[in-house]
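ingest -> validate -> predict -> emit
validate: passed (alphabet ok, no gaps, 404 aa)
predict: started
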Amino acid sequence: MHAKYAVLALALLCIATMAPTQAKYVEEFSVAPLNWNHAAPSISGDTVVWTDFTNGHDAGMYGTYLGDDTVFTVWDEYGPNESIGVVDGHLVVWQRGAVPSSFDIYGKNLLTGITFPIANTGNAEMDPDISGTMVVCEVLNVTYDIYAYDLSKFPYAPLVVCSEGTTHQQNPAIHGDLVVWEDYRNGNGDIYGAFFVDGMPQPPFPLCTHEAGQTLPAVHEDIVVWVDTRNGTSDIYGYNVSTGREFAVAVAPGTQTNPAVHGPYAVYESNETGAWNIYGCDLRTGQTFPITNDAAIQGKPDIYGNTAIWYDLSAPQRFINGAVIHDNNGSAPASAHPLVTTHLARALSLWDSLVEELPAELTDEQMATLDDVQALMEKAVSVANPLYAAGMLRQAIDIMTEMP
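emit:
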């Protein structure tokens, strides 16, 4: 082990402090508090985008990086609205148009800054989602149908995922090779899905066709969640595509709606206490828990890993807020700042592995890369702002992950 790099792990532990003793807690933070009216946020990694009316004339798409106080413009042009934006990695897609009948789907590569049309056939194209390079949306032909566009193949030819012909298919969501949507072929909303094989959609199959209505699906890996009215009010149910098992996510008084899922957590809106707040469910245990508890309206949550975001309607303004869901189970160093802890455990593990495997002689390139990583991690130790610290640790993790 190189002595130069062996001491960093000990230094990093200086930012770890004792955490509260409860099994699960959340720490809220502000994502975008400065502008006038935020809505419909989406998160991927440390990138957050949302619809914003800050320019005073129509909706635009804006974003920020967690750990950075600056807000950047994805796209905002006088006239058409930019809305329903989602982000995956460095790609953002959204619907654009003055009225629903003119909506098109556009995208932007945040690395290159290039904005490009994806679907602008003259029909209404709405409600996009993206996973990797595959974009899905609903397209109004005679009825609403589900289409896909592969951004790795230019020009972006439309791929028909589901066009049942006489009824609507709407609100698609995609992750990896699985796309899901709400489907009305049986008279009310059901949840259907389809796999992509070699970039081509395969025949649709049902996930839930309960006689009550199922709407607003979300998907991550093999877990699909949706809004379900089988109990007389709106609850959240889920389905494991790998096992074929359906399960309840959140059955509670009042209304549960707008679910999102990533990894072990699902999040959703609930007014079970009388006010609209954000709740979570640990899918490993079935435990549900409040993420917010506020008299103001909290809505449209999204989640990546254990970081949840949502809009906060503290009249007359909307803000984007977030929280880190933390398990204090001894599996990672405990921190007073869970966002730091999340990345700290991963960074320490990667660093220890790299240091153990270093050859006796390092190339100049290897030393330069390790020095860059060490500088990021040491700076994370020294800054007071936990969001900045987490962002630096995330950068260090990305560099180490890409090292041969």
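The radius of gyration is 22 Å.
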